[in-house]
């Protein structure tokens, strides 16, 4: 009989989806123009895989030693926090982020800290020359005798460097620039990225080497290349930050050796990257007096409570359709809060332009920051500042009620540590039934905590309701019911 015959298939370069005929749009990830022909060998119907020798015999799980999977500190505390204690020998880590966010700077710092502990480290760059990386190392004081540097774009050469140097840690910048000879496709394509990742993962597992891969991202923020790349590695990290800010955040999307709800904070400066163990001051402003239109929220980034200031501005709109402009706050969430304020609190802004933003480039995705946004909007509307030293936290429902937020004790403890005197929080559902218009006070770590069942009560407690003497007529001369 004839040997294996070939058949033409078409594969998406973005996600690896295959089809028997060419299409202009991928049926899996909906990307246009990403489907190209790929030739593969189709084995006959009688082919089968025979048994092969095992690499090591199967043993009871209780007899397997866990010493090989112990975390080793990387020397960067914020990275260790995200990883759950540090780097694990034999682990494959994928770090993704937008261009210019500081991925290479962070990993060069990690490689230098590892080399300082007399652990040989290999840094392979496929995007820059060795001289360019050396210039960055001089600027960030990352030059060490145990840190080896190689500029390669071929997988075979990278494996040869690993064989010669015998490092304990390998950094590859980036996986999309390395090509494997004898494999179809261009560097960065589905087949190439899959082959490169599989080869490096095998080396990591067989030699107990920690391998860190740098990955590119698409315009939508996802990791470029096949989805199988995220399945092959043990840890997937996202490094994010705004170009206009030096603040950077590291998040774990997947972690086989630790939690995925931790966040690391960094400051990217001209002399390198440094860990920020207390980032609260970045997202708050120190005003000399009470300022209308401001309120401080306590949001949770993973397990870490962060304080972020919300600022708002309300002006009479000259347009038929008023503007709603946000920065760091979800626009749909703002529209919902405005609707609740108008329906349940009498704060009518249908004829006004509304601007809402955060300080320092913070992004408020936690629903627990809804009450702080509502307080800032009401304060800007009535031109009346909330009491000094107050924080607000709580999720707003469509009926105007305040819902409890997670990790409330940790949020209150962080606000008290930073010197805030008063916190407005949702009332306990068990004690708030049937007493919608009442509130309770209590002291927590020297801070007054006021529990409110709904938004209207919270605004009244802060003197930001319709009866405030600094009413809206101060702004536009129009008295409102």
TrEMBL record:
Keywords: ATP-binding, DNA damage, DNA repair, DNA-binding, Hydrolase, Metal-binding, Nucleotide-binding, Stress response, Zinc, Zinc-finger. A motif (RadA KNRFG motif) lies at residues 254-258. The keyword DNA damage applies. Belongs to the RecA family. RadA subfamily. GO terms for cellular component: cytosol. Residues 68-217 form the RecA family profile domain. This is DNA repair protein RadA. Pfam families: AAA_25, Zn_ribbon_LapB. InterPro entries: AAA+_ATPase (IPR003593), DNA_repair_RadA (IPR004504), P-loop_NTPase (IPR027417), RecA_ATP-bd (IPR020588), Ribosomal_Su5_D2-typ_SF (IPR020568), Ribsml_uS5_D2-typ_fold_subgr (IPR014721), Rubredoxin_2 (IPR041166). The middle region has homology to RecA with ATPase motifs including the RadA KNRFG motif, while the C-terminus is homologous to Lon protease. DNA-dependent ATPase involved in processing of recombination intermediates, plays a role in repairing DNA breaks. Stimulates the branch migration of RecA-mediated strand transfer reactions, allowing the 3' invading strand to extend heteroduplex DNA faster. Binds ssDNA in the presence of ADP but not other nucleotides, has ATPase activity that is stimulated by ssDNA and various branched DNA structures, but inhibited by SSB. Does not have RecA's homology-searching function. Plays a role in repairing double-strand DNA breaks, probably involving stabilizing or processing branched DNA or blocked replication forks. The gene is radA. It comes from the Bacteria. Transmembrane segments: none annotated.
């Amino acid at each position: 009989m004839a040997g294996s015959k070939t058949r033409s298939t078409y594969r998406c370069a973005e996600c690896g989806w295959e089809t028997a005929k060419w299409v202009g749009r991928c049926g899996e990830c909906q990307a246009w123009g990403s489907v190209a022909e790929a030739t593969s060998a189709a084995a006959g119907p009688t082919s089968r895989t025979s048994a092969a020798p095992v690499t090591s015999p199967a043993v009871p799980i209780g007899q397997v030693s866990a010493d090989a999977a112990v975390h080793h500190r990387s020397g960067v505390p914020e990275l260790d926090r995200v990883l759950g204690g540090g780097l694990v020998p034999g682990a494959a880590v994928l770090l993704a982020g937008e261009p210019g966010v500081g991925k290479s700077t962070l990993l060069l710092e990690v490689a230098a800290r590892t080399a300082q502990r007399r652990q040989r480290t290999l840094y392979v760059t496929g995007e820059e020359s060795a001289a360019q990386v050396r210039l960055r190392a001089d600027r960030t004081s990352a030059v060490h005798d145990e840190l080896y540097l190689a500029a390669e774009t071929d997988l075979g050469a990278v494996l040869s460097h690993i064989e010669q140097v015998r490092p304990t840690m390998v950094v590859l910048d980036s996986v999309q620039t390395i090509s494997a000879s004898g494999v179809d496709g261009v560097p960065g394509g589905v087949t190439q990225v899959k082959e490169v990742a599989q080869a490096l993962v095998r080396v990591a597992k067989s030699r107990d080497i920690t391998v860190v891969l740098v990955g590119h991202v698409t315009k939508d923020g996802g990791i470029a290349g096949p989805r199988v790349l995220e399945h092959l590695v043990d840890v997937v990290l996202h490094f994010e930050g705004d170009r206009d800010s030096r603040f950077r955040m590291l998040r774990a999307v997947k972690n086989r050796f630790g939690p995925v709800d931790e966040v690391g904070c960094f400051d990217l400066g001209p002399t390198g990257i440094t860990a920020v163990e207390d980032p609260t001051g970045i997202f708050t402003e120190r005003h000399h007096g009470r300022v209308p239109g401001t309120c401080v929220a306590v949001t949770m980034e993973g397990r870490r409570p962060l304080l972020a200031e919300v600022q708002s501005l309300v002006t009479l709109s000259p347009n038929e359709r008023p503007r709603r402009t946000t920065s760091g706050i979800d626009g749909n969430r703002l529209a919902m809060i405005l609707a609740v304020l108008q329906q349940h609190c009498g704060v009518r802004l249908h004829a006004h332009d509304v601007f809402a933003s955060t300080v320092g480039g913070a992004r408020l995705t936690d629903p627990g920051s809804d009450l702080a946004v509502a307080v800032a909007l009401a304060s800007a509307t009535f031109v009346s500042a909330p009491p000094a030293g107050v924080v607000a936290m709580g999720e707003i429902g469509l009926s105007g009620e305040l819902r409890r937020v997670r990790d409330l004790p940790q949020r209150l403890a962080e606000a008290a540590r930073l010197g805030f005197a008063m916190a407005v929080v949702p009332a306990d559902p068990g004690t708030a039934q049937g007493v919608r218009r009442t509130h309770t006070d209590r002291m927590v770590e020297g801070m007054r905590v006021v529990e409110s069942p709904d938004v209207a009560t919270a605004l009244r407690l802060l003197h930001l309701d319709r009866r405030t003497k600094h009413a809206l007529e101060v702004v536009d001369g129009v008295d409102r019911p």
